[in-house]
Structures are given as C-alpha cells and as structure tokens.
Amino acid sequence: MIDDDRSQTAMAREIREIPTTAERLLAEQASIITVANRIRQADPRVVVISGRGSSGNAGTLLRYLFEARAGLLVSTSAPSVMTTYEQSIDMRNAVFIVISQSGRSPDLVMGAQSARKNGALTIAIVNDLTSPVALACELTLPIGAGLERSVAATKSVVLSMMIGAQLVASLTSNDDLMEKIRQLPQRFSDALTCDWSAWSSSLAAARAGFVIGRGFGLGSAREIGLKVAETMRLPTLSYSAAEVRHGPLSCATVETPFLVLRQNDGSSAMVDTLIADLRARNLNVFSVGDSGGTLPWIGNDDPICDAITMLLPAYAAVEQAARDRGFDPDNPPNLTKITETM
C-alpha cells in the first residue's frame, strides 16, 4: 500500500491519485456519448488506432474492445508510413483514434492530420485538450488525469484504458460493462492494498523478466513490461500467452521471473494451461487471477476492468523496487516526458 508521505516520488503520488481521477472521469459522460454517436453515424468499416509506448499499450486494449465487443475490424497505424515514406492513405469509412499523453509527438500529429484530410473520423484520447494532437482531430476524449510529473506514466495510462472501455460500452449500449466501469474507483483503491513485492523483488537478481497476458490482458502485460524496463532498467519481454511458447521460452531460466495476468473470460483456460506448464518446467512463476494465484488479488470481477485494475499493484510494486535499487523512477536515464519522433 502506498502511504501518504509527500516525500514519495511523483510516480508513487500519481499512482495513489488514480482512484480519485477515475471518479472524476466517470462524471464526464457527455463527450463519450457524443463520440459514440458520431461513430455510429459514420458506420465505419475499420478502426485505426495510433499511439506509442504506454499510449500504444492502451491502444492494444482498445483494439480488443472494438473487435471483441463491437465487432469492428481494427488496424494499428504505422506513423512512419506518412512521415518517413510520405504516403497518403485512403481513410474513407474509417475511424482514426490517436492516444497520446502529451499530445505533442510530431508523428502522431501528422498521422492525425493526414487521416482527417483523407476522410477518417478522427478522435483524440488525450490529457491536454490544447495539445497539437487534440487540435488536429475532429473529436476529443479528455482523460482529465491532471499534471503528471513522472516520466513513467501511470494514471494517464489507466485513464486512457478506462475511457476506451467507456467508449465501447456506450457504443454497444452495454449497460453491464458500464456498471462495472462505475465500480472501478473502488476496485482501484482496493487493488492498491495488494502487495506484489514478491514478484518485483525477484527482478533484482534477474537478467531479464517476462510479463504474460492474453486478450484483454495483453495491453496491461505490455505496459507492465515497459514500466519494469524503464524504471528498473531491466530488459522485460511481454508476450501473449499464445505466443510465448513460439521461441521466447528458450531464453528463460529458473531465475527468470514470469508475471502472468489471468482474467476470467474465454482466455482463462489457455492461460491456466500455460501457468501449469511453466510451473512444471520449474520456472519462476508469479500469477494473479487464477485459482492458484501466488500474488494477492481482490478477486475476479469483470475481465476488462480486471485487466485494467491489475496495473495498479504492478505499478506500486515496480516503483518501490526501483527505489530499493537506488533508482529514481521519476527520471529514468535517456528518457523524457515528451518523446518527439518522426
């Protein structure tokens, strides 16, 4: 549990702010309803999602939401097609969604501008409504995370995933999912009482780590892997449970920590089988959400919301482990808050 000591890092304080900012986001439904209605009117054939880093991980969840819950084909944008290769893409009958914390990466701005010029309905999921990405898009979904000082983004990622779930719940008139989303602030608070330090401590002596998820949990797995890499300076591989056997396991040893995220849905049987297989190989497995889970958890609820909620104890554990190793999680080397790529 993160305490209230104001001497804590910005990352720790921002993790602690997630339940409150999530509560505020729930009160802002008008823009979500407006965007959902515009998507219905557009009747798109395809949804294109653009984002890098943590925003790209939020986009991975959004992809599963649109395909698994709305039945819409999704493509991931390659910004370099428009920036490096200067190719204009026909975007008629497409919805283009760009996710960006800062809204200031030039390639994301150019991608949104090009998509809008070429016929797409453009939507920005952003924290800063005055940013170039927001201004480049026709519609915006503000996450309202407030100031985020730590280079390692946390609350903006959680809120980006949350607003994506709200959008798809509104688009599909899924009242059950919307009710589960309303419970997220309390679930977030409860999740912060879960101590995952057994997993994060095991990373200290490791040469690398694995984070595994599937379906709705894949974006969270990728996000946790990124946070370990940037704050603990440890190479961390994130894979779908369906992909990890296709080669990556060959580099694992008994010292390699595996964090396996399991939500209770159609992916659970396959993930359970993988967990059993990893343990049979005597690998160092930490699991959450399964019946034999080795990490504390608040109990399974909705698979989409659980996948998002699992980020919070992971973030808290990684922040603490980074400080224990003498690292500053707010200022990882070679990184800046705004990454300008072309």
Structure, briefly:
The chain is an alpha/beta fold and 342 residues long.
Number of helices: 15
- CA(first)-CA(last) distance: 40 Å
Which CATH class of the largest domain is shown? Answer: Alpha Beta
CATH architecture call of the largest domain: 3-Layer(aba) Sandwich
Low confidence ranges: none
Total discrete domains = 2
The largest pleated sheet is described as: 5 strands, parallel
Number of strands: 9
Question: What is the assigned CATH homologous superfamily of the largest domain?
Answer: Glucose-6-phosphate isomerase like protein, domain 1
> How large is the share of residues in beta strands?
5-15%
The whole-number mean of residue pLDDT values reads 94
SSE layout:
Layout: H1 10-16, H2 18-26, H3 30-42, E1 46-50, H4 53-70, E2 73-76, H5 80-83, E3 94-100, H6 106-117, E4 121-126, H7 132-136, E5 139-142, H8 155-171, H9 175-182, H10 184-191, H11 197-202, E6 209-213, H12 218-232, E7 236-240, E8 257-261, H13 268-280, E9 284-288, H14 303-309, H15 311-324
Characterise this structure:
The structure is a single chain. Helix 4 (53-70) links the parallel strand 1 and strand 2. This protein folds into 2 domains: 10-183, 3-Layer(aba) Sandwich (Rossmann fold); 194-324, Rossmann fold, CATH 3.40.50. It is 46% helix and 13% strand. The chain is an alpha/beta fold and 342 residues long. The strands form 2 sheets. Strands 2-1-3-4-5 form a 5-stranded parallel sheet. It has a 4-stranded parallel sheet with strand order 7-6-8-9, with helices on both faces. Helix 2 packs antiparallel against helix 10 (184-191). It contains 15 helices and 9 strands. The longest helix has 18 residues, at 53-70. It is globular and about 55 Å long.
